[in-house]
């Protein structure tokens, strides 16, 4: 079992940066693929980024490539999402997720979800 707690959301202006953190409980954190989904009002949850257990594989959806960077610190049981050059369309609730299924971008493979943190980007 893994419990995930996000932090770092908030209100920023377009062009600014924000770093989200996700603290995970559980002794097996280092074995999970970790990721970040987001859900904007009226839209489906969408995977933004993911990182394999050792950081050897990363995934970014096209909308955030070059602007977002995912990283993890297995010693601290924490995964991060550094978001730069933020746009109003990045406004959403961001969810930290964990998967036991390796390098996957399938929503169904992400077993564990945090409660979400709101990111609002004003124009």
In short:
By secondary structure, the protein is mostly beta strands. 0% of the residues lie in helices and 50% in strands. The chain has strands spanning 4-7, 10-13, 18-24, 33-39, 46-51, 58-60, 68-73, 78-83, 92-99, 110-113, 117-122.
Task: Give a quick set of tags describing it.
123 residues; mainly beta; seven-stranded mixed β-sheet; 11 strands; globular
- What radius of gyration results from the CA coordinates? 13 Å
- End-to-end gap: 40 Å
Overall average residue pLDDT? 96
User: What is the N-to-C succession of helices and strands?
Assistant: EEEEEEEEEEE
What percent of residues are in strands?
over 45%
What structural class results from the helix and strand content?
mainly beta
What layout of secondary structure does this protein have?
Layout lengths: L3 E4 L2 E4 L4 E7 L8 E7 L6 E6 L6 E3 L7 E6 L4 E6 L8 E8 L10 E4 L3 E6 L1
Describe this structure in words.
The chain is mainly beta and 123 residues long. The chain is 0% helix and 50% strand. It is built from no helices and 11 strands. Strands 2, 4, 5, 6, 9, 10 and 11 form a 7-stranded mixed beta sheet that branches. The protein has a 4-stranded antiparallel beta sheet with strand order 1-3-8-7, with no helix packed on it. The chain starts with a strand and ends with a strand.
